[in-house]
Prior knowledge:
Elements: H1 2-27, E1 28-37, E2 43-49, E3 52-61, E4 66-75, E5 80-86, E6 93-100, E7 109-113, E8 124-126, E9 130-133, E10 143-148
Antiparallel strand pairs: 1-4, 2-3, 3-6, 4-5, 5-10, 6-9, 7-10, 8-9
Amino acid sequence: DYHVIGNTTEKMMRIAIVGLVAIMLTMCIADDMIINLRPGFPDTVTLTMDGVTCEFYWAVEGGSSEEWELSLNYDEDEKVYTCWIGRPISYLYFQDFYATFGDNYEISEKVVRLNDKELEPEYVGFDGTTLYQKDGWEGTIAGVIIKTSK
């Protein structure tokens, strides 16, 4: 008798978990990757979903490399793609960076995050499709967020 109750409970939990996962997948589709920012080795990385590509370029200085996450998400409800590049805290010194979805996608929202606050707007350039570091500013950032709609 106990085995039947446990079995029924297990089936109900599986159904609930499958339902929850299905709801989450319809609300937001995501892809991500770990990237290695190495001092002295400028690089560019891209991540593509549904024909939308997030591109991030960096040139950094510092004592050692850091692992960062690049994540591209699509929110079904808002019909918005979000590209997040970052880590909780960074010690790398950025000489240059930019983030873009390419020339065909206008950025609707943008944030450059220092370790504990947003970077002041006067240090960040923006031309409608690309968010970039302005000439004359170099420093530590911990994340970049850009959004666009398809």
